[in-house]
Amino acid sequence: MDKKRIAWCITGSGHYLKESIDLMLTLENVDLYLSKAGEEVLKWYDYDLSIFKKNKIKIFKDVTASASPVSLLYESVYKLVVISPATSNTIALMAQGVSNTLVTNMFAQAGKCEVVSLVFACDTEPVVITQAPKKLVTLYPREIDLKNFKELKKFKNVIVVDNVKSLKKHLKKLSQ
């Protein structure tokens, strides 16, 4: 089990993006899965993909209609799927069973393969202060965003966290 890899997925959120990436870079045996929005947001926050390659992290981008890299889940390559940070859009799609991006497909197939998913949701409180590319902003998640967050927490083999401390705690336990 310890030789299995971790699939780390990034969506289009800057909310605790730096902390998520810093945490990911402390781990071994990680592959990075980027939604199209995830790839964009990395550029907005001045991340160059070479930082991941330098750390021997293989990168999978959302470039195929069938999200073909998910097939690695069928081959028991992964012990854990981490989605951090996860936008309210990604949370909504996953909570409703929609798998139309690389990241939401990874989540759906992880569930079908009984691989645990650890999700760091962004919009979890009535007021969220977050880092935009150039400044801090205050956001007011909609009721539907909060409802989807709560719904996702009910899924089997899914751990949904709403802060960095909880992400670190669960990641430490699950990545061993």
Instruction: Please give the CATH class.
Output: Alpha Beta
The largest pleated sheet is described as: 6 strands, parallel
Low-confidence stretches: none
Tell me which CATH architecture applies here: 3-Layer(aba) Sandwich
Topology as a string of helices (H) and strands (E): EHEHHEHEHHEEEHEH
Tell me the radius of gyration.
15 Å
Instruction: Please tally the β strands and state the result.
Output: 8
CATH-defined superfamily: Flavin prenyltransferase-like
Annotated CATH topology: Rossmann fold
Provide structural commentary:
By secondary structure, the chain is of the alpha/beta class. It has one domain (5-174): 3-Layer(aba) Sandwich (Rossmann fold), CATH 3.40.50. It has 8 helices and 8 strands, in the order E-H-E-H-H-E-H-E-H-H-E-E-E-H-E-H. The protein has helices at 17-24, 36-44, 50-54, 71-74, 88-95, 102-112, 143-152, 164-174, and strands spanning 5-10, 30-34, 58-61, 78-86, 116-121, 128-131, 136-139, 158-161. The strands form 2 sheets. The protein has a 6-stranded parallel sheet, with helices on both faces. A two-stranded antiparallel sheet has the order 6-7. Helix 5 packs across helix 7. The longest helix is centred in the middle third of the chain and has 11 residues, at 102-112. The radius of gyration is 15 Å and the shape is globular. The mean pLDDT is 93.
